[in-house]
Amino acid sequence: MTRIPLIILGAGNVGRALIRQLLEAAPLHAARDGLALPIVAWCDRAGALVEPDGLAPETLAAAEVTKAGGASLAELPQGYHQHDLTAIVDVAGTDGCVVVDVTASADTAPALELALRRGYCVATANKIPLAGAQATFDGLVGSGRFRYESTVGSAVPVIETTRALLRAADRVDVVRGVLSGTLGYLCSGLQAGRPFSALLQEAMSRGYTEPDPRVDLGGQDVARKALIVARTLGWRLEMADIQLTPWLPPDYAALPLADFLARAAELDAGFAAQVTAAAAEDRVLRYVAELAGGRITVGLQAVPTDSVLGQLRGNDNLVAFHTRYYPDSPLVLQGRGAGVDAAAAGVHSDIVAFTG
Ligand SMILES: NC(=O)c1ccc[n+]([C@@H]2O[C@H](COP(=O)([O-])OP(=O)(O)OC[C@H]3O[C@@H](n4cnc5c(N)ncnc54)[C@H](OP(=O)(O)O)[C@@H]3O)[C@@H](O)[C@H]2O)c1
Fold it and tell me: Which ligand 1 atom sits nearest the alpha carbon of residue 47?
């Protein structure tokens, strides 16, 4: 049996889903893959559980329920207060372990870098370190022991596909992506003739948006994903190099949330007019990340209705690669780009891929 100890940083929606998946899949991994994946440490912002022999399944299951109830891991009988993720990696790390980052924090980078210096592997769903300075990306990914499939399109294999194209020395000319399920949902609704403000309320009540939906509407998250794909292609860019046009006019970004929501209907007529103007040219609106000629642009575009992006509906993600070997009809990946189980599955797959 191959034993790969796991140190899991983050116990939010994705972290908890990952714990559930690992517990459920343990018999399968043992029988099919000859693989044991003991969790030797699990941390949230304030607390940690650490057990070098592997935390017992019942301890993890109870901790998962505790976290779902809003408490900290520090409050568990076996838990203790942690303020330093590098110390956790230092104490719990052993040869052959994988450090897993399912936080949404910039603060994990030192712990990930320490793990790589020690020769450990890292699997992450956290875009923030990878979309930070180019040098940080180079240090993490250049180690060759760093997987990050869930950072773009959840488990839709955007990163692996990008790498496969590069391995074949294909020339990637243009990548176009719809990388936000939330904004895709709004675009589909606008196309169906619905007002922006009503769609926004619906997206919020269905839990598709962040608590303040302007986090999604600002386009930063899409820009981060586009930057990660571009850097995976070998392009050297910083966030500041991205030509980002937020979905919302700047005046609305600065308002208190309640005022913004009260005034969202002011935007209905403008979006309806854009939809009508696009339709007159047989186009539809999509919030697109486009990588072309070494540059990234992110913003609302009117794309041909019969294009792959134009055909997209609902909150799926889609990435189209136009390359030397896919010149006319692009290589297209499409699927659920959000959802905690899909994100956790991408990380789960990355962990197991280290054994391959
Ligand atoms: N949700 C999705 O559908 C999805 C899809 C693809 C990728 N992702 C990515 O997956 C990651 C996790 O998403 P999520 O929805 O699970 O987020 P979340 O619910 O906000 O959970 C984040 C977790 O990280 C912990 N954390 C934050 N800073 C930390 C620190 N410095 N040290 C230790 N733990 C820290 C938080 O601790 P506390 O519990 O103590 O606050 C929390 O447990 C994010 O990077 C997200 O972008 C999510």
Answer: 40
